[in-house]
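Hi R.,

Here's the chain you asked about this morning:
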Amino acid sequence: MSHYFTNDEVKSNLKEIKIDILDTSFYFDVDHGVFSYRGLDFGSKILIEQASIKESHKTVIDMGCGYGVIGVALARKYPNKVIYAYDINKRAVELAKRNAVKNNVNVQAFESDLFSNVKVKADVIFSNPPIRAGKDVIFKLYKDAYKNLSEDGELWIVIRTKQGAESTKKKLEEIFGNVETIYQKKGYRIYKSVKVRKLRPKIKFEAY
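And here is the predicted structure, written out as tokens:
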């Protein structure tokens, strides 16, 4: 999988797959060298199904978007949100752009090493993080997500129970000061952490 993160060339084998989710049939172009080439992975599936975006939250990021399934599905479910998708893999980004058009939704996709090329503040960030990239990369994603969230913004993470779920929960608690388990079944967990609004200090006025 090292080619995925270094953008090394992998022989193309473009094909179309059908994904049924949210009571909708989506069609995606997929290719070799992009995550979950054979079909929708279970982690992304449950993250899409469990996702809930508040009315007040307008800007959404799909970090590590692959060929765009999370962003595209959320754009269909929440057509009034502004959705951005980012991935370090050039081929994935091009597929995400194509798949947004193919499914007639508005998702803006960009190449970025985590948040290095992110120019917007997000109200919600969703991620099925690249576990094989290693713990240092994953924890950096969490820290950078916190910095790129607006106040009261939310980070949603899906992770396998046996691939670092407990350490992720601990790290999110450390960074955000809170973590909620949204889903815990079939060897997967979905966590949500909120960037809590900072209270302004009360100003004391001297009596004259």
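One quick note: Helices lie at 2-6, 42-50, 69-77, 90-102, 135-148, 165-176.

Cheers,
M.
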